[in-house]
Amino acid sequence: MITVVKPADLAGHVGKETGVSEWLLVDQARINAFAECTEDFQFIHLDEERAKQTPFGGTVAHGFLTLSLLAKLAESATLALENIKMGVNYGFEKIRFVSPVRSGKRVRGRFMLKGAEEKSPGQWQLVYEVSVEIEGEDKPALVAEWLTRQYV
C-alpha cells in the first residue's frame, strides 16, 4: 500500500527508506514481449541456446526492461502526496546496470527518499535512491537516482 503524506511532512521522510516492493517475476515471456515492443532482438535476451554459451549462462532481461519495471515496483514502495492530481517521471541523475537479471528470476525495488523540493506552488520534485534487488543474489540488478514530480 502506498503511503500518503502531507507536503509539510516530506522533510521527515528524507534520508529514510520509503518501502520495499513485492517480488516480481521476470520470465522469458516478459523478456520476449519487451523485445517485441522495443525491437531489441539481441540474442542474449531471446536465443536460449546461444545465450547458454555466454558468461550469463542463459537469457537475461534487457537492462531497460528492468529499468521500466520501476513504475510497477514503486506503486507500493514510494510516497504519494495528499491530494495528488498526478505524478510523472522527471528523469534520472544516475542509472547503473550492476548485474544481469536472468530469465526466471524475481526482482523487487527498494526505495529511499533522497530529497523533496517544491519547485513551484503545488509542484513537488521527489528524488529516490532506488535499488532493484534480484532474489537470492548479493548484487542488485540496477541502482538509480530517480526524479519524479507530483502535482497537488
Overview of this protein structure:
There is one protein chain. 20% of the residues lie in helices and 41% in strands. With 152 residues, the protein is of the alpha+beta class. The protein starts with a strand and ends with a strand. It is elongated. The longest helix has 11 residues, at 28-38. 26% of the residues are buried. The strands form 2 sheets. Strands 2, 3, 5, 6, 7 and 8 form a 6-stranded antiparallel sheet that branches. Strands 1-4 form a two-stranded parallel sheet. The protein has helices at residues 28-38, 43-46, 48-51, 63-68, 70-74, and strands spanning 3-5, 17-20, 24-26, 79-81, 86-97, 105-120, 123-134, 142-151.
SSE diagram, text form:
Elements: E1 3-5, E2 17-20, E3 24-26, H1 28-38, H2 43-46, H3 48-51, H4 63-68, H5 70-74, E4 79-81, E5 86-97, E6 105-120, E7 123-134, E8 142-151
Spatial separation of the terminal alpha carbons: 20 Å
Sheet bearing the most strands, described? 6 strands, antiparallel
Q: Order of SSEs, N→C?
A: EEEHHHHHEEEEE
Question: What is the averaged pLDDT score?
Answer: 97
Structural class: alpha+beta
- What does the radius of gyration come to? 17 Å
Helix share, percent: 10-25%
Q: What is the count of DSSP helices, taking H or I runs of 4+ residues?
A: 5
Tertiary shape: elongated
| Poorly predicted runs of 5 or more residues | none
Percent of residues in beta strands? 35-45%
In total, how many beta strands? Answer: 8
